[in-house]
Amino acid sequence: MGGWGMAGRLFLAYVVFIVVAAVFVGTAAFVDTRDRGYEATADRMLSVAKAIADSPLVVTAAQSPDPTLALQAYTLEVGEHADADFISVLSPSGIRWTHPDAAEIGRTYTGQTAGALAGRPLTEVAAGTVGPSVRAVVPIVDPDGTVVGLVAAGVRSSSLQTALDARLPATLALTVALLLVGAIAAGLLGRYLRRSTLGWGPEELAQRYGYAASALNSVREGLVLSDRAGRVVYYSDRAAQLLGLPSRQGSRGAVLPPTAIDDLSLPPGIAALMQSGRTVQDELHVTASRELLVSQVSAVPTPGRTRTRATPLGTVTTVVDSAELAARLQRIESRHRSD
């Protein structure tokens, strides 16, 4: 990923996050919707089965010599109107009196019936003659309270699955929308980062910062950088020595959070100069222990990849000990004389 900019990396991380989140949330939502769908379908089938079991026609037919003749056409019609895949009326022993497939009439019902025979309606998800289905079984009770038959009503789970699958496009649409929003946000963020970093990537910035910090701390002059608001954001180790500032060795090259000049206990004359932002060359300032030559210019960066005109970032203030400078000049002059 060395060729990727910060915005590209953030967008890639965003895409991965959205995809993972969409899979997680989509799966959780689907499972929850499925469970709720099964529960709602079971309740609906229970209501249908109860309504049929409570019908006087069904109670009477269940005690007749030929319940199939009296109920087959009736249950087919009710099943069509109730949107049920099957409705079976059963004998107390579980023998089918009615079924959508006439070939199944007279055969034993394959689901649970014990609870219904005890007078307790039940619901379940089970495999039957029409395949896996959500079904309800309720007792048919005569006026004396005797269970004279059972009613089973159900919907194939494949039919329910089709309804659930219809929700998937909404989840996918939400995921695509989030990705589009992320792409727009990443594009805007990328433009901002390119302007802020002059088009350099994170590795390039780290490398350049390392070189710059090493270079700034290796020169004999003290360097202080201030932003456009007049706050100090950097000073070199040498500047700390000359100006009596706290040493910041080992603290990432003396990079500071933006700090007001008045909070650094600078010599008053130098503090006033830095606050003014004036451009000066070798201005003499006398402190308690030194005579310092101070120069100050606007900090104008080299135009970067994304801009052709550089905007001043603040000021650069250099501080030189005049005695050290005089000594250096004398050494240079002596060397030239000896040559």
CATH architecture of the largest domain: 2-Layer Sandwich
Number of strands: 10
Total DSSP helices: 10
| Uncertain ranges | none
Q: What's the CATH H-level homologous superfamily of the largest domain? A: PAS domain
Shape: rod-shaped
**Main sheet: which strands, in order across?**
7-6-5-10-9-8
The amount of helix comes to: 40-55%
Beginning-to-end CA distance, first to last residue: 55 Å
Largest beta-sheet characterization: 6 strands, antiparallel
Q: CATH top level of the largest domain?
A: Alpha Beta
Provide the CATH topology of the largest domain: Beta-Lactamase
- The residue-averaged pLDDT reads 78
Query: Whole-number radius of gyration?
Result: 43 Å
SSE string: HHHEHEEEHHHEEHEHEEEH
For the record, the count of structural domains works out to 2
Strand content: 15-25%
